[in-house]
From TrEMBL:
This is Nuclear condensin complex subunit 3 C-terminal domain-containing protein. Keywords: Cell cycle, Cell division, Chromosome, DNA condensation, Mitosis. It comes from the Eukaryota. Residues 384-396 have a biased composition (Acidic residues). Residues 382-413, 442-463 are annotated as: Disordered. Residues 57-326 form the Nuclear condensin complex subunit 3 C-terminal domain. Belongs to the CND3 (condensin subunit 3) family. It is found in: Chromosome. It holds the Pfam family Cnd3. GO terms for biological process: cell division; mitotic chromosome condensation. It comes from Rhodosorus marinus. Its main location: nucleus. InterPro entries: ARM-like, ARM-type_fold, CND3, Cnd3_C. One of its GO terms (cellular component) is condensin complex.
Amino acid sequence: MALNAIEGVKLSEEEHEDEANIANEESLKQTEAKLRALEVVEALLSHKGELSDRQQIQMAVLNGFTSSNSVLRASALQCLSVLCLREKEDDEALRFLPLFVQVCGNDTAELRLMAMKCMVDFLMAFRMEDRSSEGENPEENGNDSTTPSGKALILSLLLDNLLHSDSEMRTVAAEGLARLLFCARIEAEPEILSKLLLLFFNPATEDDDLHRQSMSVFFPAFAARSQTNRSLFEEALILTLNAISSAPSVSPIASVDPVEMSLYTFYLLELNDQPLKRTVDSETSSDSQSERMILRLLNKVIDLCETIGDSDALHMYCRVLGNIKLKQTVGTLSELESFMSLTSKAVGYVGSMGDSKSITFIRKFAMQLRIQHRDNQSARVLFGDDEEDGESEDDSYSGKENAEVVPRSTRARSTTALVDHNENVTFHTGTHEHKKSMLNEVGEGVERASARGRVLRSGSRKS
């Protein structure tokens, strides 16, 4: 009896194994059949023209999402995205958007990346805006509650994935935001640029070559496109510095170098597709946004000192100012003097705080301004005198017979003094050629006046 019972148990186990094998074979056959069906659907979607039976195609695609096979789900996701992109309106994309969001958060790494790329493509192709603002009822369109905020939902998802632990997810999210910003598919905001800057200068992304290459192309191209974009980088710099100063020591944001990031942002602010040449008396130039940014940093230093704010934040802002290189003359002479006045105030406040390192940095910046002020004053004195001399020479030899003739020795000394003064003047970048040409014009005017005087004297002798 016991032997028969054991044999019966063995037979039942074998039967269960056979049934399991049969079930697996049937499941495998079903998976293969669904995969072949999706391949046919993908081939149909690759051709232009109207689809003959759209509902049947949708059913075949949606059945693929119920499979446990990741390859089948990936094929279904690809077909569904193409099916949505073939539409002229964003109705289908909004309808299936929750499915893409679910895949992006709860599937394999490959499918999450694919779903995120598909959603970026949706925003590139469609507006994906709130339908309720257009007077439409979402329930009448068959859309759920998440449909009206499709654009905001995708944008929020991309921003969240900038902090993802997976480097590929971060890269795809950053590239997607860069594409959308550059093509004006989403509204450019300083907060988005600040997050991209923090990720770009995060030491954890140094080895991510694809991310760094794409951002190295995006930032200059976006900044050079318009002055409005460069103004956004002004706000983004302040937001980024505040984020670095307030970040906990264990946060990855705390490891971002504020000086390196700030210098790069100043480089972006100076980009211009039509650069303007600056003269000594010009009040507008291509680096006016950089000047505004420096003023904001100085005011931030003063505010931190007046409110006895965070000493680490004060040190960071002073360090940034101390490492800024002033490449050109700052505005007009009056603007430069206002810069020096504000800087002197900041130096006094920082000195009262007793932080020796911060004092060193802010004094380093003040020294640059003093050097520019000295050179700017010498250049203005030179050109002011030259213009007066040139006018007097032209007036003296206006062609009148009774005009006074300046003695030749005086004219020679005047010309020599101009040349000597020119040799002793140190010119700034971008203004040397302009100043030199002005000096040459004055010298030529003196020589013409001398020749005219000789003609007048010879004529008087003949008479």
